[in-house]
Predict the structure.
Amino acid sequence: MAQHNPNPLGPWKITVYDQENFQGKRLEFTSACQNVMECSIDNIRSLKVECGAWAGYEHSSFCGQQFVLERGEYPHWESWSGSNAYHIERMMSFRPICSAVRFCSRPNHKESKMMLFEKENFMGSQWEINDDYPSLQAMGWGNNEIGSMQVQGGAWVCYQFPGYRGYQYIMECDRHGGEYKHYREWGSHAQSFQVQSLRRIQQ
Amino acid sequence: MAQHNPNPLGPWKITVYDQENFQGKRLEFTSACQNVMECSIDNIRSLKVECGAWAGYEHSSFCGQQFVLERGEYPHWESWSGSNAYHIERMMSFRPICSAVRFCSRPNHKESKMMLFEKENFMGSQWEINDDYPSLQAMGWGNNEIGSMQVQGGAWVCYQFPGYRGYQYIMECDRHGGEYKHYREWGSHAQSFQVQSLRRIQQ
């Protein structure tokens, strides 16, 4: 399992389509796309991730709602959106998640590491994690919010609701210096501190 | 972390409301409810899981779409539905997932065990798993389908799409003898063999 990429072009590959169910105009990418309209398609309506982990965005220039995209097939908007508070069926830019760790045997899984803080600005009680948590409350976290986060290794995705549902917030050790001091730094779609599940992003 | 339940009534507790955002008529349960209409509410529109892992169902008598419900707060239908092919905002019955394993330190996590088979009726190539897989293809599974499954320990939830999205299929070692020979045995909402992510249910 050390090598998942049979493609010599590099560790990342995504194929996007301008119609649902892998129909219509088709484009392959091995690196970031800042604006699909510059590639003469008006919107992405289905996609296949063939290599690596990617972040998709509602707007161009990596803005708006975030969608973590791992290897597999996404035939329509709902297959990557998760359950969201607002349904804008749009994905206009995407990029590789470079800090996502390689999936490998368990003994190495500590490459992914994050500190959770009860309050913003790294205040209040704290908890170090290196595993996936489908319910933070079941695993001992006191409430349905996280005040701030410090990613010390790997890439993570946080969710509003238990069981990996709702808004997705992608957190990476190599962006913002891994520091996410306030929900305003989680993405423009974040409107509260609510996080009830989170997991590592592996590729 | 050995004991998550401060409530002497037992290891399971769920509170349901007939309006969104934990408003309206409120009912507490510590065991299964076969039909919420028999409790004088027409539908569940928000809920809090306070203890244990639960399975929610679209229809009475544990039929229709399935929703895995772990500890935390679900303020509206979209917070538990995931991204689904059809949106019927209805949850009419629910029950504890008795075989969900206790969350505990890693050395014991092998209590959850499942065999995946390429073809229906436990045919074709097979793969034993005891961990969570946000992308089966990234982890080495050959395609976007699973033909059949045999749950040897614990409870699992399978999803149509990568990253724990789409239809949810709850699989338990103590139901059907843990055997799921064909997608027709996954639930009435299953219309294909498509499974692209799966994970253990812990409580």
In short: The longest strand of chain B covers residues 165-172. Chain B touches chain A through 45 residues (CB under 8 Å). The two ends of chain B are 11 Å apart (CA to CA). Residues 2 and 46 of chain B are 28 Å apart (CA to CA).
